[in-house]
Design goal:
single chain; alpha+beta; five-stranded mixed β-sheet; 8 helices; elongated
């Protein structure tokens, strides 16, 4: 065999070994990439599963919240539907607010002392109201006693001064209502719960009622309401934190 032929055979064998090495190298890289892809797929599936579980939990709370709203509204209507017209009151389905809308019955102008007619209404209303809420207490975060006024004050008062004077008035009125119902003998056993969950809030003229033309309705703006705040937001926050 000639020397040139030996060299050709040597380099041919080397090239074949080099190609085999390159093949094994690319095979190892492709295996690594396939493994990484599988890990990525598993991680994606795990994240999607966690997201779906989170979504289902929040959906469950939302459904329970909606059902609780409906049940509370129905319970209030069933208890008070025959009293609403004579009290000039309404129950708002969306906000779960029980609203008393007769300012001439509630308080004298500019005063925080309950009028006798309003005391009579509260004597009847509040014990029954607390009894209705008894069934739903685990779903209730707060009962907010809200006081609202019109934006009116005397003509010598600025708009800003009128706002804060009405704030003091609305807060004084809700405090008077809360103090009165708190000491009703019929709810003596519920005072601990009332103390923890019923709050008196004055909104001044921040939430006035408008007529069809968009003008303020002075009479309807002066009102007192008992609004139920459910604890759905707290439940959702707890799920997100966990």
């Amino acid at each position: 065999m000639s020397k040139r032929h030996e060299q050709s055979s040597f380099f041919g064998s080397f090239a074949e070994r080099q190609e085999e090495g390159d093949g094994e190298h690319w095979l190892a890289v492709s295996d690594l990439m396939a493994g990484l892809m599988m890990i990525f797929v598993f991680v994606s599936i795990a994240l999607m599963r966690d997201a779906m579980i989170e979504r289902d939990k929040i959906k469950e709370v939302a459904v329970a919240y909606q059902q609780s709203q409906v049940d509370l509204y129905k319970a209030l209507v069933n208890e008070f539907e025959n009293d609403l017209s004579r009290w000039n009151a309404v129950i708002n389905r969306d906000t779960l607010s029980f609203e008393f809308q007769s300012p001439d019955v509630l308080f004298d102008t500019g005063k925080i002392v309950l009028k006798p007619a309003f005391r009579d209404i509260l004597d009847d209303f509040f014990p029954r109201y607390i009894n209705v809420l008894q069934v739903f207490r685990t779903s209730i975060d707060e009962v907010r006693l809200e006081g609202h006024t019109s934006s009116m004050w005397n003509k010598l008062t600025t708009v800003d001064d009128a706002y804060f004077l009405n704030m003091e008035l609305s807060q004084g009125r809700t405090r008077s209502v809360l103090e009165y119902v708190y000491y009703l003998p019929q709810v003596a056993d519920d005072r601990a719960w009332i103390k923890q969950h019923v709050a008196a809030v004055g909104f001044s003229s921040a939430r006035t009622v408008q007529d069809e033309q968009g003008n303020e309705d002075d009479e309807r703006s002066r009102r007192v309401s008992f609004r139920i705040i459910t604890n759905s937001e707290t439940q959702i926050r707890r799920i997100l934190e966990n």
